[in-house]
Amino acid sequence: xxxxxxxxxxxxxxxxSLLTISPFTLFAQAAVTRDSAQSLxxxxxxxxxxxxxxxxxxxxxxxxxxxxxxxTNALKAIERIPGVNMQSVDGFGMYEWSNRITMRGFQSAQxxxxxxxxxxxxxSYGNWNGLGVGRAVDAANLESASVTQGTGALATASAxxxxxxxxxxxxxxxxxxxxxxxxxxxxxxxxxxxLRYDLGLRTFGGGSNGVSAFVSVSRFDTDxxxxxxxxxxxxxxxxxxxxxQSGFLGGAGETWHEQVNLKTNLFLGSxxxxxxxxxxxxxxxxFMDLSLGVFNGTxxxxxxxxxxxxxxxxxxxxxxxxxxxxxxxxxxxxTDAAYYNSAQGARMDHLAYLKGEFKPTATTRLEVxxxxxINRGGGDWxxxxxxxxxxxxxxxxxxxxxxxxxxxxxAKGSGTFTMxxxxxxxxxxxxxxxxxxxxxxxxWRLVNYQQGPEVDFTNVLRLDYDRTADVTTNLLYAQxxxxxxxxxxxxxxxxxxLLVNADFxxxxxxxxxxxxxxxxxxxxxxxxxxxxxxxxxxxVGAVFKVNERNELFANWSENVNxxxxxxxxxxYNTAVTTxxxxxxxxxxxxxxxxxxxxxTRRGAIEAGLTAYTIDYRNRLLGVAxxxxxxxxxxxxxxxxxxxxMGLEGVLNADLGRGLRLFGSATFNRSRFGEDYRTNPxxxxxxxxxxxxxxxxxxxxxxxxSLSYTRRRLNLSLGGRYVGERFFTYTNDLATVGDGAGKxxxxxxxxxxxxxxxxSIGALKSIELQLNANNVLDERYIATMGSGGFVARGDxxxxxxxxxxxxxxxxxxxF
Length: 814
Fold this sequence. Notes:
The protein is mainly beta. The protein has one domain (5-813): TonB-dependent receptor, beta-barrel domain (Maltoporin, Chain A, Beta Barrel). The strands form nine sheets. The chain has a 22-stranded antiparallel β-barrel. A five-stranded mixed β-sheet has the order 3-8-9-6-7. Strands 1-2 form a two-stranded antiparallel ribbon.
C-alpha cells in the first residue's frame, strides 16, 4: 500500500499538531535536561557523565575525536563510552562489513543512529534504510558523538532504537575566513588528504543578518593490512567525480574513500536556516570471514593452506582453484569462505538536508527539517558454485546491486506554560519517511575457469533475486518537562507512536528455493505487504539535584523495533508459504528499560554510576536455511525474551600539571529467557537457550586513558579490555553442554602524540600528530557475527583485529 491514506493522514496530523500549540507560551531556551543533544544547531555537551540528563548519556567531543588518526570513523571514538562494544577490523573503522556495535546486549540493527537529527538507519552492511556515519559526513567535520545507552529520546528519528541511540553532530562553519589542509600517511600505504575552506561570518542588512559556510574535499586510500584486493567489475551508478580509480597521492589504494561536504548557515534575524550536502564515493576490499577453527589453525586443511589469524583470500588463481577442488567436504563452513581476492564493496551516496529554526516571537520556537538520501552500490564475490544448478565450474562470480532512495521530513515545536507554581516545557513533533530500496543479485560464469578469474558478463547463470521494498515510516511524539522544588526536581514524561508499513515486490523472477531453481523458473515470488504498529510507547524520567555537586536520575521507557525489512535478507525472504503465518502471528520486538544512577562533580573530578535492568520481549530470530554464499529462503519467528541487568561507571579527572585521567567500566549480564523450537510442531527441534548468554555481549569491558598537555605538546595513552564473548545461541560449539562457543577476551592500547609547531609564514597553527594503534600488537578476534549466528557450530563469522599500525599527519590552516 504505497499510497496508504493513513500515512497521509498521519503526516497531516503531525503538521497540524505543530500549528495548534498556540495556547502555550513557547520558548527557545534549550536546557541540558532536554533529551536532544542540540540547541539551535549547536551541540550542548553534557560531558562524559551526561550531567542533567534523565537517562544514562555520554558525549565524545571534538577534543577526543582529534586524538584519533585523521579519517577515523566516529564509531571508533565511542567505544570508550561505558556499555558500548564497538568492533572493526581496521584501525580507522572504515571497513563497513566489519563494523558492529552492541550495547547492553542489543545488536547493531537494534540501535538507532542519527546525524544532525537525520536517520542513518540500522547500520547493516547493505543498509537499505540509511548509511554509515563515515559516508554521511567527513570525520574531520564532526563536532561530537553522543550516546544514550538505554533508549533514545522520544524525538529520535529511528524505528530501530530498541537498545539505545548514537547521535552525531556536524561542526559549524568557522567565524573567520580560512583554509584548512590535512595530510596523513602511514603503514599499509595509508594516506589521506583533505582541504576545507571556511567563508567566515558575513553580515548584511545592517548586521542583523548573516551567512557562514564551509566546503571540504577529501580522499582516503589504504591497502589491506593482510592479503590483497583486486577489482573485476564496475559497479552500477558509480561516478568518479573526484579521483576514483586513479587515486591522488600514490595512486588508488585497495580501499579508497572520497568525500565532499558543504554546510551553510543563513541567519535572518532570530531565524536560522541550515543547508547541508554530502557526497561520498568509496570502494573497499574485503577481508575474509574466518571460522574459529580457521582462526586457531585447527580446521581441516590448515597445514595445506596456511590457516590462522592472517589467512585471507587467495591472491593466486591456481591456489584458489586448488582450494575449490580440494577434498574438503562440500557445503561446510570452510568451503563457504569463498576463494579469490575479488571480494569488493562499493557505495556512492548523496545526502542533503535543509533545516529551518524559527522564533516568530521572543518566546516561540519551531523546527522543520526535510532531507533526501540517494544510494547506489554493489558488491563482488568469487563464490563456490554448489553444483550444476549454479555453474559447471567450481567457482562463479556473484554481484549484489543496491539502489535506494529516501526522503523524509521532521518537525517539532515547543512551548512553556505554568500550572500553579510549576513551570512546564511542552514539545510535540513528528517524523515521516518514504524509502524505496532495491536489491538485486545476479551470477555469471567465468571466461575460462582453468585459466583465470576473469568474468564473462554476457553469460548470466542465474538471478537469485531482484526485489524492491517501499517502506513508509510514521512517528508522532509529545512530551512535557516539569520543574519542581525550585528547579531541584525535573520530571520528563511523554509518549510516541510508531507505524511502519512495507510493500515488497518482485521485479525479476525470484526463485523460492535459491539453491535449485534456475533463473527462468516459472514460479516467482508474489508482491507482499506487512505493517508494524508499535502502539503507544511511554517514557518517564527524573533528575533530582541533591546539591550543586550531586544529582540522582531515573528513567523508565518502552520501545519497539521494526520488523527486518531489508528486501534481500528480511521478512520478504521468508518462504512464501509461511509469510502469511509470520504476518499474522509475529509481534515486534519490545523492550522495557529501567535505569537509575548518580552523578557527582567535585572540583576537577566528574563521575557517574548507572544501574539498569531490561525486559526484552518477542525476540525475532531469522533462521538461515543454507550457507551464506548460497542465497535461499529464510525463516523468522518470535523465540522468547532476554533478561538483562548491568552496571556502568565513568570517571573523568583533572589531576593537575596538565594530566587528565578518564576511565569507564561495564558489567553486563544478558541471558535468554526461554528455549525455542526451530519447528513449533516438532518436539525434537527444541534448542536449549534458556539462561544462556547472548552472543557478542561481553560481561566486562574496561576503558582508560591518561593524557598530558604542556604548552604545545599533547600526549595520550589509552587502553581497552573486552571480556570473553559467546557466539552461539546455546553457548556450545560442537556438543551439548561443552560451553565452548565463545572467544577469549583481549586488551589493546593506543598512543597519540600531537605537537603544535605554530606559524610559518602564511601557514598558521601547524600541528604534527603521531598515532599508534594496538601498540602491543595483540592478535585477537574483533568482529563476530559477520556471517550470522547459529544455535551451535563453527561458522565463518569472525574477523581478525588489526595489528599494530603507525600514522603521521600534518594539519595547518592559512
